[in-house]
């Protein structure tokens, strides 16, 4: 089983990289782009075959290491 | 005063801070490796600047989970003084020894210069040799020094006198112009609840020796010596 973890900065936490990307898109002529937020994607290959157990394990990984919950949100997707 | 400095793969300021600690104390500083699971009995532990683990994942995230940090946490709980400078500050927040987090500088640029600071609280083992409100200059060198914390944490930090240093302009005024990285409330350094753990982005060990051309960081080390002797 694979897990995809998406880590993004919480709303309210300034995302200077997202802002810079937004400015760059504007410079390139891509109009109509609102706020840009960037984050990271972490893919995990898991031995676990039980979805519920896998999700719980990844949840723990996010809490302990993959995300800093002071500033970041995370979303887990099992594939 | 006996001291230890923690060395992670990618640390690069461990020697500088060890020299400062050794010169004020006259004792050799113990260098601990990230895999160490024990430390000698020391009075102060320094978590140095650098790029531990190449800043992988988040600055300080890997180091915070290394074996030696378990010992640092145990010692900190016993009241051993812990100072984290720059990447060391990032590591201490990631390890949960200090609240909040340090994110990318607002400018997105790496900043390497001497910044103006105001000493906010001199009632600690780290700052007692400064005078309240003293205006000092200390070098910084970081890309992720923008301090953030939730509102409640900020309220506690401000209300309990846990802000150690604040960025100022050249006249010593705390304002946006004097904020190099966008840090909330111009926060450059904070204490834990008992003021036995200090994290700061500026490098006092780089303003220690007269040959640095600036000795404004020296009082931090002499403060520690007086507190711990």
UniProtKB/TrEMBL annotation, chain A:
Molecular function terms, GO-annotated: ATP binding; phosphoribosylformylglycinamidine synthase activity
Domain of life of the native organism: Bacteria
GO annotation terms (biological process): 'de novo' IMP biosynthetic process
One Pfam assignment: PurS
UniProt key word 4Fe-4S: no
Pathway this chain belongs to: Purine metabolism; IMP biosynthesis via de novo pathway; 5-amino-1-(5-phospho-D-ribosyl)imidazole from N(2)-formyl-N(1)-(5-phospho-D-ribosyl)glycinamide: step 1/2
Gene3D superfamilies, per database record: Phosphoribosylformylglycinamidine synthase subunit PurS
Function: Part of the phosphoribosylformylglycinamidine synthase complex involved in the purines biosynthetic pathway. Catalyzes the ATP-dependent conversion of formylglycinamide ribonucleotide (FGAR) and glutamine to yield formylglycinamidine ribonucleotide (FGAM) and glutamate. The FGAM synthase complex is composed of three subunits. PurQ produces an ammonia molecule by converting glutamine to glutamate. PurL transfers the ammonia molecule to FGAR to form FGAM in an ATP-dependent manner.
The name this protein goes by in its record: Phosphoribosylformylglycinamidine synthase subunit PurS
Organism encoding this protein: Nitrospirillum amazonense
From TrEMBL, chain B:
EC number(s) given by UniProt: 6.3.5.3, 3.5.1.2
Pathway per the UniProt entry: Purine metabolism; IMP biosynthesis via de novo pathway; 5-amino-1-(5-phospho-D-ribosyl)imidazole from N(2)-formyl-N(1)-(5-phospho-D-ribosyl)glycinamide: step 1/2
Annotated catalysed reactions: N(2)-formyl-N(1)-(5-phospho-beta-D-ribosyl)glycinamide + L-glutamine + ATP + H2O = 2-formamido-N(1)-(5-O-phospho-beta-D-ribosyl)acetamidine + L-glutamate + ADP + phosphate + H(+); L-glutamine + H2O = L-glutamate + NH4(+)
SUPFAM superfamilies in UniProt: Class I glutamine amidotransferase-like
Subcellular location, record wording: Cytoplasm
UniProt KW keywords: ATP-binding, Cytoplasm, Glutamine amidotransferase, Hydrolase, Ligase, Nucleotide-binding, Purine biosynthesis
Gene Ontology process terms (BP): 'de novo' IMP biosynthetic process
One GO CC annotation: cytoplasm
Residues at the active site: 86 (nucleophile), 203, 205
MF annotations from Gene Ontology: ATP binding; glutaminase activity; phosphoribosylformylglycinamidine synthase activity
Keyword Hydrolase: yes
Superkingdom as given in the UniProt entry: Bacteria
Keyword Nucleotide-binding applies: yes
Alphabetized InterPro entries for the sequence: Class_I_gatase-like, PRibForGlyAmidine_synth_PurQ
HAMAP family to which the protein is assigned, alphabetical: PurQ
Subunit (UniProt): Part of the FGAM synthase complex composed of 1 PurL, 1 PurQ and 2 PurS subunits.
Function: Part of the phosphoribosylformylglycinamidine synthase complex involved in the purines biosynthetic pathway. Catalyzes the ATP-dependent conversion of formylglycinamide ribonucleotide (FGAR) and glutamine to yield formylglycinamidine ribonucleotide (FGAM) and glutamate. The FGAM synthase complex is composed of three subunits. PurQ produces an ammonia molecule by converting glutamine to glutamate. PurL transfers the ammonia molecule to FGAR to form FGAM in an ATP-dependent manner.
Name by which UniProt lists this protein: Phosphoribosylformylglycinamidine synthase subunit PurQ
Lineage, highest ranks first: Bacteria, Pseudomonadati, Pseudomonadota, Alphaproteobacteria, Rhodospirillales
């Amino acid at each position: 089983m694979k897990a995809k973890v998406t880590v993004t900065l919480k709303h309210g936490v300034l995302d200077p990289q997202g802002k810079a990307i937004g400015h760059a898109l504007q410079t390139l002529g891509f109009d109509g782009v609102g706020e840009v937020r960037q984050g990271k994607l972490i893919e995990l290959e898991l031995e676990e075959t039980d979805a519920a157990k896998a999700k719980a394990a990844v949840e723990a990984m996010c809490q302990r290491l993959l995300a800093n919950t002071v500033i970041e949100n995370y979303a887990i997707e099992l594939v | 005063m006996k001291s230890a400095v923690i060395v992670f793969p990618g640390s690069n300021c461990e020697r500088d801070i060890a020299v400062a600690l050794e010169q004020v104390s006259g004792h050799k500083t113990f260098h601990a490796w990230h895999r160490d699971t024990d430390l000698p009995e020391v009075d102060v532990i320094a978590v140095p600047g650098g790029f531990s683990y190449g800043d992988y994942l988040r600055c300080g995230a890997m180091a915070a989970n290394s074996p030696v940090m378990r010992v640092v946490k145990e010692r900190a709980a016993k009241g051993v003084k812990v100072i984290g400078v720059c990447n060391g500050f990032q590591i201490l927040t990631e390890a949960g020894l200090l609240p909040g987090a340090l994110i990318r500088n607002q400018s997105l640029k790496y900043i390497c210069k001497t910044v103006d600071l105001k000493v906010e609280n001199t009632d600690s083992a780290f700052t007692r040799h400064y005078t309240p409100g003293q205006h000092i200059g200390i070098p910084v060198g970081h890309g992720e020094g923008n301090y953030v914390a939730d509102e409640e944490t900020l309220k506690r930090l401000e209300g309990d006198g846990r802000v150690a240093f604040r960025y100022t302009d050249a006249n010593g005024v705390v304002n946006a112009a004097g904020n190099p990285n966008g840090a909330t409330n111009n926060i450059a350094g904070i204490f834990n609840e008992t003021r036995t753990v200090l994290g700061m982005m500026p490098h006092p060990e780089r303003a220690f020796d007269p040959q640095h051309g600036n000795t404004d960081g020296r009082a931090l080390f002499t403060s520690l010596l007086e507190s711990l002797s």
